[in-house]
Amino acid sequence: MKKTAFLVKTREEQSEGLRSSLGLIIENNDVIMVVLDHEVDMTDEYRENLDWLVEMEGEIYSNVQANIKKHGFKPITIEQLANKLREMDHIISF
Question: For the whole model, what pTM was predicted?
Fold first, then answer.
């Protein structure tokens, strides 16, 4: 099973990063999605897809407290992210 990390660096790319994460997890990949340096724009559609990713055992992380407290992301520091990325087969940046 391949391990893939999606790094979402802008609000404009948040939906594409989530859709791509879902696409790979459906194909039986281990997926983590990391939202960096911005609070997500939490629409109903985004929440539904985010919940679906988590239900399928994908992991969601952020270095932004608002995402952690309001939206259920797991906290991650840049140092922790660097360690996680070493375990990945693929890293995709948005």
Answer: 0.93
